[in-house]
Amino acid sequence: MSQDLAKRKAAEAALRYVVQGEMLGVGTGSTVNHFIDLLAERHFDIAAAVSSSEASTERLRAHGFKVIDLNAAGPLSVYVDGADESNHQLQLIKGGGAALTREKIIAGASAVFVCIADESKLVDTLGAFPLPVEVLPMARSFVARELVKLGGEPVLRANVITDNGNPIIDVRGLRITDPRALETAINTIPGVVTVGLFAHRPADRLILGSPSGVREVVAR
Ligand SMILES: O=C[C@H](O)[C@H](O)[C@H](O)COP(=O)(O)O
């Protein structure tokens, strides 16, 4: 419950980045769900949202927000999304909710990526949270073997297919000391759609909530 309150506080603090009348990139997850609900509760007047998942699209539309395709939106000024882990450089692990591919695309298309999370998500070294990798179905076993060569323990995520129709492999046992190198290494395995490591495109702001308040972390 207190973790949920922390998420809501982080979401609330991100509202100050929203520009009324403009388009807004909106991510996925329980923290973002608070953000979407707050946008509605506080009567924010955005032109439209670009959403990173079917779940967020449904929630936005249920509140009466217009949701458009990224192709119709062009570059976005702000993207608000959660994370499973962040290091002090604001490099992230994302994809616990299986939305990593669309999230990485929208983050790449946005000028400012505001990450919202509860304070437990800030770590010194990424990797305690299993690293999600979305793969094409026919490449599942091959990619898993390649991930073992990189030092990980791949586990197919049970009963999950992404919005893009692909399975996810969660990689345990990694201590990610060079996130950019690992992101590149996994990206170059044939069959990988997206790795949930956001190192080449980290967040620009990290808002961490706790039951008693929020703090904003600047990249070291
Ligand atoms: O695929 C899901 C996303 O990367 C989420 O932003 C991430 O899992 C954090 O989710 P939550 O806000 O529920 O902790």
From TrEMBL:
It is an enzyme of class 5 (isomerase). Coiled coil: none annotated. Keywords: Isomerase. One of its GO terms (biological process) is pentose-phosphate shunt, non-oxidative branch. It catalyses: aldehydo-D-ribose 5-phosphate = D-ribulose 5-phosphate. The active site is at 103 (proton acceptor). Homodimer. Belongs to the ribose 5-phosphate isomerase family. This is Ribose-5-phosphate isomerase A. The gene is rpiA.
